[in-house]
Design goal:
Elements: H1 2-36, E1 63-71, E2 80-94, E3 105-117, H2 123-133, E4 139-140, E5 147-149, E6 153-157, E7 170-176, H3 182-200, E8 216-218, E9 233-238, E10 241-247, E11 254-261, H4 264-267, E12 286-289, E13 293-300, E14 303-311, H5 323-337
């Protein structure tokens, strides 16, 4: 009788031990899954892209060693950042050096950075920030969207409903990824801008983006000079947006960058930076022209229009990239092209 009474307690202890072992095995399995394979598909840049979309699309053999650092925007938080880095297979190269695919795969590093915010408020810092947005021979986004792209960078100004303390909100994208082109960069830029606007609730989703035109050769009458190759530079020309990046012998060391825009949301980025005085006597504009750059704002055929110039590391020291000589020539040429009355007296 005594031994029979012990059986329920023994069975309970055995059952408890079995459950503990099962729980331990489940925990070990979960740890193994976490360490060696993903439990679920991962999203990146505030949920904009999945593992096989966006910048990862087209990776032959897949992307590896993905690292993401994010600070997401949201209601009451109109700013954010996202940095992605990963390794992708370069199908055109392998370790045997002959490109026939018989060697080991060659992995290349890729990186993508996204920023959402209004930029600095202090005038000098804001001018420097705006200079950095214009990468050079940018292509304007199609359908009059307020932005511009190159193969490796892009900028989009969000609608006025997304302004913060009177300053426009801007989404920027820079990086290196497979099959980079202005068209692909533009699509990635619109993807992440739509996501940012949705998360903050400040604007509706923008329509799908057509392919922007690739930049072409640009030459501005009166500013070709010694050391400047032919064609004079690379840029884009639209009725409300024009850029031209001039280089000397080294295309990677630009000498001067010129830009004109009459797209209202881009013009709004320059609010408060041109002052109330003309850059020189005889000018029908406000702003300044200095030894290293120029910025003016004028009424051009009834539209507020901004003209800018910045010198760079490839500067030749000639009149071709001296703002005091080259910038007036640029303004004259562009104003005449877009039907603007002369902005300065002869």
């Amino acid at each position: 009788m005594l031994r029979t009474a012990e059986h329920p307690g023994r069975r309970a202890r055995l059952l408890t031990g079995a459950l503990a072992i099962a729980a331990l095995l489940a925990a070990l399995m979960a740890l193994w899954q976490t360490q060696f394979r993903p439990l679920a598909r991962q999203d990146y840049c505030w949920g904009t892209w999945s593992e096989e979309s966006g910048p990862f699309r087209g990776e032959a053999g897949g992307a590896r060693h993905r690292v993401s650092q994010e600070s997401a925007p949201g209601p009451g938080r109109p700013h954010g950042r996202c940095t992605l880095s990963w390794r992708g297979n370069d199908p055109g190269n392998d370790h045997d050096g002959n490109g026939n695919g018989n060697g080991n795969k060659h992995w290349v590093e890729h990186r993508l950075e996204v920023s959402y915010g209004t930029g600095p408020e202090a005038p000098d810092e804001r001018r420097a920030w705006l200079t950095g947005l214009f990468a050079g021979g940018d292509s304007p986004l199609p359908d009059a969207l307020p932005g511009f792209v190159t193969a490796s960078s892009g900028t989009l100004v969000l609608p006025k409903s997304c302004d913060v303390r009177g300053r426009p909100s801007v989404v920027t994208l820079t990086g290196s990824f497979p099959d980079a082109s202005p068209a692909r960069t533009g699509r990635l830029l619109l993807d992440v801008a739509n996501r940012a606007a949705k998360m903050t609730g400040c604007a509706r989703q923008a329509r799908p983006l057509a392919s922007p035109r690739a930049p072409g050769a640009c030459a501005i009458p009166g500013i070709a000079g010694p050391g400047m190759g032919r064609p004079a530079g690379t840029g884009s020309s639209e009725p409300d947006f024009e850029t031209c990046a001039l280089a000397a012998t080294d295309a990677f060391r630009w000498a001067a960058r010129f830009a004109m825009t009459a797209r209202p949301r881009i013009v709004a980025l320059f609010d408060g930076l041109t002052g109330d005085s003309p850059p020189a006597p005889g000018w029908r504009a406000h702003g300044r022209i200095e030894a290293t750059g120029a910025l003016i704002r004028a009424d051009c055929a009834g539209r507020p229009t901004v003209f800018t110039m910045r010198t760079g590391p490839g500067r030749t020291g000639t009149r071709a990239d001296d703002p005091r000589h080259a910038f007036p020539a640029f303004v004259d040429a562009v104003a005449g092209r877009i039907g603007c009355a002369p902005l300065r007296s002869a």
